[in-house]
Amino acid sequence: MGTVWNCGKSRKSNMSSEKKSKVERPLTELLKISEKGCFEMSKFVQDVYKRLNEDRKLMKEKADNSFFTIADALVQVMVRTMFPSDKFREFCGEESPSNINIEKAPYSVDGMELPPDLSESFKKSFAEIKKLAKSVDGEAYKELGVFVDPIDGTREFCTGLGSQCSICIGFTRDKLPVAGIVFRPIPLEEGSKLTYMAGCKQEGYTNGVLDYSDGKAQESLLTSNGSISKFTDALIKELDFVRYKAGGCGNKMLLLLEGKGTAYIQDRGVSRWDTCAAQAVIEAMGGVLSKLTTIQSNRSIESYQYKVSDVNLDLNPEAHLTKYNAKNKEMGGRNPAPKVTGENVLPYSNVCGLFGLKTKDKDLANRILDAIQKVQKKVSPQYS
Length: 384
Known about the structure:
The chain has ten helices and 18 strands. The protein is α+β, with helices and mostly antiparallel strands. The longest helix has 26 residues. The chain starts with 5 loop residues before the first strand and ends in an 8-residue tail after the last helix. The strands form five sheets. Strands 4-8-9-10-11-12 form a six-stranded mixed β-sheet, with helices on both faces. Strands 14-13-15-18-16 form a five-stranded mixed β-sheet, with helices on both faces. Helix 1 packs antiparallel against helix 3, helix 5 packs across helix 10 and helix 6 runs parallel beside helix 7. The N terminus is likely disordered.
């Protein structure tokens, strides 16, 4: 029986490249600032969420039929403001709106306009974010990248399942996640505390509030709320797990940490901004998030590469184009679906799948890996 815990390609961040500063634990300090920022931004996000049902003009559908709200764009603006370009090496965010007005009310994004009360809510949150930006050290983070999903789980945010969405802010060095925060801006229940986790393995820092399971739940595999592949379905049956449906990659990582899911295994892809913060957090908590391809092929852990780029740094020749990962959406809709190449796939699509566990328990890991090996002989992962 092989071992899953060959970690040679997942943790090789070069600390020596970081600029010297007076900050003793710079990544920890960065996460504390991020935490304060998420609490401030959550006030605005909650106000937008409460209005979405009655004002659908605050949201749109993208070309790939995914959702986009004015909150997505403005939260990304606030994160970008909090961590300005002159203090960081690079920034990668999910959203790319073409027309943003944040100079004066009514604030707007691509034709979506905030009503007066929401404009005031944004103004207050943005003012606090600007204050936090001044507290970010000017030298400590020049070698760091920032990967952001402002509202991970936007579909859930737009369909009354807001407690499944999260703000994901990940920090990278040498193409690897080194610190991150996954923050649910909508409470699990009305009046309950907001749940989140921040972590940095390198500095031994974790902090957050989680809604822990009572420990009585049956072993389960976390999946999306929508359809799943034949491979994932067969794996659930082979393991005799139950299927735990949930939205948002960041939310699923928190569910793992809360003990509500046993594993998160997905052959269908998400994107780097979905997984960057989640990986940093789960690694800081003693778990793992890896490409599924290396787990499947040789039972080893390997991280995706996180760097601003025009090409995908982690190609998978077995993956297929979809409307979500194709540069040309028409190609993504073809049947049969074309194979992924460096020319036709989006640069930040995770086309190598995902494998996540909250613990490096070898017995559990090997039991799951044995099941993966057995199932793939009958039905291959549907990488996309």
